[in-house]
Design brief:
Radius of gyration: 19 Å
Helix content: 40-55%
Largest sheet: 2 strands, antiparallel
Amino acid sequence: MVLLSRITTKTGDRGTTALGDGRRLRKDHPRIEATGAVDELNAVLGLAIASDPAFGDAGLLRDVQNDLFDLGADLTLPPGRGAARRRAPLRLTEAHVRPLEEAIERANAALVPLRTFVLPGGSHAAAWLHLARTVCRRAERRLVTVARRETLNPQAIIYLNRLSDLLFVLARRANRDGREDVLWVPGRRLEGAGS
């Protein structure tokens, strides 16, 4: 259980923050950047849910928001650093990824097939989900940067990769199963231009 009795600690006033193992890192360290991108993704998902009170995928996205907190906990305690702890550190596993894959299959089955790329937009919920997808991709890139430099749970990258796919199909579902998607028209501004 987490107990937050004080919000302002002033321990980060010099540009550092603590990991779960007690080490302090600069706030622009790649691991902290990755953690921040995951937090930003979680906030955008909250906006997607709030944008449409009748949004049918709110429960699924609340589960994802909880998973993203699990991912944050995973990131704040690098593998191999929690041996002295009483409890095993919280890590993302295949059990976190599997529900995303199942949700992708369910959602995608009802979608209008794509014949071109989709522009971000359509309904409010779809637009927020497209934004969440791009933030998810950024978080994934930040995790890849961390993985190049130090040990990282490989399931973390897999999770974000699947999540971005899920957010894409949910955005299409929010656009009446793809019927109200905003489609890319290659060279649209050039159509009708002088010859």
